[in-house]
Amino acid sequence: MEIELRDYVTAPGLLDDWIRGWSEGIMPIRERCGFQLLGAWVDRPQNRFVWVIGYYGPGGFDAAEERYHSLAERGALHPEPSSFVQTAEITRVAPISRDRV
Q: What is the pLDDT along the chain (101 residues), one digit of tens a residue?
């Protein structure tokens, strides 16, 4: 499985709007595209939303990401959920076993 750690900071006062757009729009579409939510956390004082998403399927993560962004359903989300995000750091990470640490 390919995994991304996504760390977003929203504009002040917009964290709940982001979470609503993410949970009602983004994640259902991503799940239909084969992505798996591995976890999500919020740091309210910092307007920060951190989530981990994985993909294991045909063509790999990059191809699935491209399919997701090309869907009309994704383009039709309103308001555009990413418009709430001020900064985003996305890092591709790989799992390790405890005996390899």
A: 999 999 999 999 999 999 999 999 999 999 999 999 999 999 999 999 999 999 999 899 999 999 999 999 998 998 888 899 999 999 999 888 877 66
Please list the helix, strand and coil fractions of the chain in percent, rounded to the nearest 5, in that order: 45, 35, 25
How distant, in Å, are the alpha carbons of 4, 13, 19, 72 from that of 52?
Answer: 6, 23, 14, 24
Its pTM surpasses 0.85? yes
Instruction: Compute the Cα dihedral for 16, 8, 97, 36 and give only its sign.
Output: positive
- φ, ψ dihedrals at 77, nearest 5°: -60, 130
